[in-house]
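Reviewer comment 2.1 asked that we show a complete input and output for one of the modelled complexes. We chose the magnesium ion case, as it is the one discussed in the main text.
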Amino acid sequence: VDKICLSDAVIVFDLDDTLYFEADYVRSGIRFVFEFVSTELEQDLPEKLLEELLGGEQELPAGDWLQRLLADGNVQSSKESLLWLYRLHPPKIQLESSTSEFLAWLRERCPIMIVTDGRVVTQTLKLNALGLKNVPHLISEQYQSEKPDERRFKLIMQQYPNKSEFLYVGDNLKKDFVAPNRLGWTTIGLLPNPRMVHRSATGEEMPTVNRPTVWINHLTDAKDYLKE
Ligand SMILES: [Mg+2]
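Response of the prediction step:
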């Protein structure tokens, strides 16, 4: 692949498991809900249960954490209520310093944007916590369009008629790269990492349209495909 000239480019990022690890968001939510149940609902919860739900350094939080909290903690509240508490909690998450430095470096050279799927309230709370609220972002709920639908990618192209190179950086083979590939973008995929929630294989079995133009190990390796 030829290196892309930054002055011609618009670089668009996925959010979850691309700019930060989604597992950190999940852990933040589990802590918040656990704390709420103990403090506000005044229910005795064993600290050991929290440890189990969070998972260790090398493992992901328990997928059924809410179920287990309700059952093992004997919590007097509905699953639905606690799920909303989770979705609306102000997350304690942050960008890795290499990521924020990379984004700052890019922003001096080309427009950057975020295309993410999810609820406006939840994704906005994440963006704010990560210090990304000033990066233009298109959240699926607001546009009534989820990946792999092309709508938001087309809007970005219309917004920058004088740019010739569009890049999308993501992690999810099922949905991230289909629309930008169809529209002739360069797509960059983050290789699966044990800390990611949705770990896809590199997708040899997937149709070409699902697969990124190039794979990278770490976000900042995207620099290898860019030139000033
Ligand atoms: Mg993702």
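Residues 14, 16-18, 170-172 surround magnesium ion (CB under 6 Å). We note this here for comparison with the apo prediction described in Section 3.2.
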